[in-house]
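INTERNAL TRANSFER SHEET
From: sequence group
To: structure group
Subject: Co2+/Mg2+ efflux protein ApaG

Please process the attached sequence and return the structure record in the designated field. Keep the field labels unchanged so the import script can parse them.
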Amino acid sequence: MTTQVTKGIKISVKTNFEGTFFKNYKMHYAFGYTITIENQSKDSVQLTSRHWRIYDSLNDVETLDGEGVIGKKPVIKPGESHTYNSGCLLTSPIGAMKGHYNMINFTTTENFRVYIPTFKFSAPFALN
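Return from structure group:
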């Protein structure tokens, strides 16, 4: 598990290999990840948007921006957490992701970034 804390918000990431399949005459590697966002600060916060950089060892870096996570903009009170599952497809068996969440602190009305640590993907057969 990979973890990082920014301004009292702890991000923990666990990854898993889901399998392979063909799409558009190309082999794709499916990876899943579970992210837990834990509020260790004294203020309630809300996740408003996300920014991802996806690294595929055989492709260019892909950048994704979007509202919330999996259709939600969770409010996380002090001592509480929000966990969600998602995934990505790569054209190689090795890759990584990193990024940040944009959040707002309800006490100070400050907008701030919470960094998501780099987490790696590797199919079990790809590394000896």
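Handover comment: The domain at 2-122 is CATH 2.60.40.1470 (Immunoglobulin-like). The chain has a mean pLDDT of 95.
Transfer complete.
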